Amino acid sequence: MTVPAKAFQQWLDGVAGTTSHAAVCRAAGIKRSTLAQQLVRGRVSVATVAAVSRSLQRPVVDSLSAFAKFKDLSAGVRTPTPAELLSQVCDTDLLTEILNRSRTADTGLEAALLELSPAPHRTSVRTWLDAVGPADLRQQVAREAGIAPQNLSAQISANRLSAELAIASARIAGVGLANGLVATGFLTPSEAGWQPGARSAALHQTPDSTLVALAAERLEALSRTLRRIEADTAAAQKLWENLG
Amino acid sequence: MTSILQWMALLACVTCTLWRFPAMRQGRNRGLFWAFAMVSVSVALSIPAIYLGVDGLLGGVNLANVILRLSLFAVFFLLASKVAAAYSSPLARRMIRGPVGLAVLAACSAGIWITYFISDLHGSSAGLWGFSDQPSVQAYAWFGRLYPAYAALCLVQPTWRAAFSRRPLLDRVAAMSMCAGFIMAVAATLVQMSPWEEGGELLELLSFGAILLVAAGLAMVWVSFIKRPAVL
Predict the structure, then answer these.
(1) Pick from A214, A172, A178: which is nearest to A79 by CA?
(2) Any chain B CB within 8 A of the CB of A232?
(3) Nearest residue to A12 (alpha-carbon basis) of A82, A151, A38, A1
(4) How far apart are CA B94 and CA A186, in angstroms?
(5) A44 phi, psi to nearest 5 deg
(6) Considering only CB atoms, which chain A residues are within 8 Å of B232?
(7) Taking the domains of chain B in order of start, what are their residue ranges?
(8) Fold that domain A2-70 belongs to in CATH
(9) What share of chain B is helix, strand, coil (3-state, %, to 5)?
(10) Which DSSP category does B232 fall into?
């Protein structure tokens, strides 16, 4: 999640020249104290790099590639597979597409092309991992990154994934290295080199059967999540009712 | 050290009682208010300075100690049934409010009265330390410990389970604090029942530590209740 402060300073000198830190922070919309603290600690967060890079109108992927940790990132950019594109379509849009198609089948009227909600959606990390990976992708990622599988699961449940883990997952799965960063919302689809409207086109080209199976999977996962949330709420409610 | 802990426990209990007062007025969880009021009485009566004064008013026959014991029983009964329900443990609730729990409570209360009447207890003595050579007084103390230990033991498992569940951090810390308090309450009884002579200091440390931990756990539950999402 961080790059060394020294490397960041070098990169900043290269791209922003003599611009003061204050001006860089103002343009990037980050607090000056935040950057100062990150520099003092010797670790600058990748979010800072991305914000500065965007404020300077530089491609975020190229900026990140300037750091040793991410040096193969820009070379590893590849167009997303149809499964990846579909994984970044939210549940509601999937279902709306199904409804539109069935309405078209019933009435014969072509429905207007669906305007997709912007990526990422609420379970984008999990759906992306499911879309790219072999069955044991999570175990492989955890082993590779040297973190406990529970920590990885916790991140995925919270729809978060650190930049390093997202890139490591993409590498193991053999897909474009920046694609996971779209799923985490760190990059916009276009920043990762996805064509505009690519998600929409992939959705449109998906056969009905695949679409319905995918929606069923999504609803199944959603029902599991909802059940868990309801159980947690009930437990909290019970606690407050009796001891609150 | 012990007396600081005692006064701290009293302060914590009185604070909790006062904090519960507005909720009691609104009719929410009245049982908790009474439990705290009685726990304050019990803690106050176990502080020698207060005990001697109160018992003097009651005739100097250590009736205050009986009040202390019985109010502690009531506290444990009320609190234990609430905690068992709060952490959704039907088993613990049955063990407290079911026939077994009520039988243990009745037996311990009867034991307290019987041993009180067959003992010779003239002259106030906090904690009955002055009479501890009488076998009936030892039995009295034993009964006084038995029910709280029983109730606390019933609650160790549900609070432990909650402490390692998927609840929010504050709720888990609260459950953990209560669980530690209940374990200490059980440990205090074990120390008292053991033949270890030098246990006095440790015993008081465990007892008041237990009260502090349980009170802290409940306070954390109230904080989480105050911070609860508005939609619930």
Answers:
(1) A178
(2) yes
(3) A38
(4) 52
(5) -105, 130
(6) 233, 236-237, 240
(7) 2-226
(8) 434 Repressor (Amino-terminal Domain) (1.10.260)
(9) 80, 0, 20
(10) -
- Please give the C-alpha separations between residue A97 and each of A86, A222, A223, B218, in angstroms, as whole numbers: 12, 18, 20, 50
What one-letter code names the amino acid at A4?
P
* Chain B contact for A244 (CB, 8 A cutoff): yes
Instruction: Provide the 10 A C-beta neighbour count for residue B137.
Output: 23
d(CA B124, CA B56): 7
Where in the sequence of chain A do the CATH 1.10.260 domains occur?
2-70
Per-residue pLDDT tens digits for A77-135: 899 999 999 999 999 999 999 999 998 888 887 777 778 888 889 999 999 999 998 88
Interface check A153 vs B, CB under 8 A? no
3-state secondary structure A81-150: CHHHHHHCCCHHHHHHHHHHHHHHHHHCCCCCCCCCCCCCCCCHHHHHHHHHCCCCHHHHHHHHHCCCHH
CB contact under 8 A, A244 and B87: no
Query: What ipTM was estimated for this complex?
Result: 0.76
Per-residue model confidence as pLDDT tens digits over A146-181: 999 999 999 998 999 999 999 999 999 999 999 999
State the CB neighbour count (10 A cutoff) for residue B35.
26
In tens, the pLDDT along B28-77 reads: 888 888 888 888 888 888 888 888 888 888 877 888 888 888 998 998 99
